[in-house]
């Protein structure tokens, strides 16, 4: 029962930081430090997933949590690259758009991971 409550509050607020990234990625405004917060929040979630997968007793739980943790890790790598490219190529709308798309993908995957963690905690 305590685990169910832990799945919600422990997860970093990636959605709110990703929405502010979208609003700050306009071609007329300089890049903001918000993507860094998105990256740090998602990194915390990867750490949580990695820890949970090692602690899980059931193989299917281990594999499911590790899958999402690895997926988020790969997405983080892509976001770091696209954020650097957006900063280097500022004010390129294409570079900013690519960064925003990656952040949207990360936000969606984060939500899926949170749902999986919630389902596993309810077991």
UniProtKB/TrEMBL annotation:
Task: Tell me any Pfam family this protein matches.
Answer: CAS_C
Compositionally biased residues, Low complexity:
13-27
Ubl conjugation listed as a keyword: no
Q: Which residues form the CAS family C-terminal domain?
A: 35-117
The UniProt keywords, alphabetically, are: Phosphoprotein
Outline the segment boundaries, as ranges, of region: Disordered: 1-34
Q: Which InterPro entries match?
A: CAS_C (IPR021901), CAS_fam (IPR037362)
- GO annotation (BP), single: cell surface receptor protein tyrosine kinase signaling pathway
Among Gene3D superfamilies, the record links this protein to: Alpha-catenin/vinculin-like
GO CC list: cytoplasm; focal adhesion; plasma membrane
PANTHER family per the record? BREAST CANCER ANTI-ESTROGEN RESISTANCE PROTEIN 1, CAS SCAFFOLDING PROTEIN
What is the protein name given in its UniProt record?
A: Breast cancer anti-estrogen resistance protein 1
Organism name: Limosa lapponica baueri
* Organism lineage: Eukaryota, Metazoa, Chordata, Craniata, Vertebrata
């Amino acid at each position: 029962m305590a685990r169910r409550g832990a799945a919600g509050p422990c997860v970093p607020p990636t959605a709110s930081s990703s929405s502010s990234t979208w609003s700050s990625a306009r071609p007329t405004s300089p890049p903001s430090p918000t993507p860094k917060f998105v990256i740090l929040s998602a990194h915390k979630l990867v750490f949580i997933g990695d820890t949970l997968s090692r602690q899980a007793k059931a193989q299917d739980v281990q594999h499911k949590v590790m899958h999402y943790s690895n997926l988020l890790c790969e997405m983080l790598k892509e976001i770091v690259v696209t954020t650097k490219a957006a900063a280097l190529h500022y004010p390129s709308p294409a570079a900013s758009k690519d960064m925003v798309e990656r952040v949207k993908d990360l936000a969606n995957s984060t939500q899926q991971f949170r749902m999986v963690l919630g389902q596993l905690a309810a077991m």
